[in-house]
Write a structure and sequence with these properties.
mainly alpha, 0% strand
Length: 128
């Protein structure tokens, strides 16, 4: 294995001064290169995070647009169903009203007696 530093036997006094300068200059260059590499890596991470944020924001916009479209469809469907229920209730009420008319015509005295009894019952409950 070779070393960048001369061994003790290979050094002379003049070489020792130059070797010491090289020994300190090289780590400084390596540290500067490491700082640059870390800075570049930091820039890449920042760019990647920005890209991920932009993609997430775009996906959220699409989801919101889709949800708005679905809300409109759901509201329309609910309105249609409510209209159908209202029509059914109206026809049932009309049918019930017709049944009451038939009962009153067939048994007028029973209907009057029932109305008087219910009126009396409500009067007693109301007083208490």
């Amino acid at each position: 294995m070779t070393s960048d530093f001369p061994s003790g036997g290979e050094r002379t006094d003049g070489a020792r001064d130059i070797g010491d300068e090289n020994a300190f200059a090289r780590p400084e260059k390596e540290m500067a290169a490491m700082k640059n590499a870390i800075g570049d890596l930091s820039d890449q991470i920042t760019d990647a995070a920005s890209d991920i944020g932009a993609a997430a924001q775009e996906q959220a916009r699409r989801g919101l647009k889709h949800a708005r479209a679905n809300v409109g469809a759901i509201a329309s469907d609910a309105s249609d169903r409510l209209g159908a229920v209202a029509d059914t209730v109206q026809s049932q009420a009309s049918s019930l009203g017709g049944s009451f008319e038939d009962v009153v015509r067939e048994r007028p005295l029973s209907t009057v007696a029932l109305a008087l009894g219910l009126g009396f019952l409500f009067g007693v409950i109301w007083r208490r």
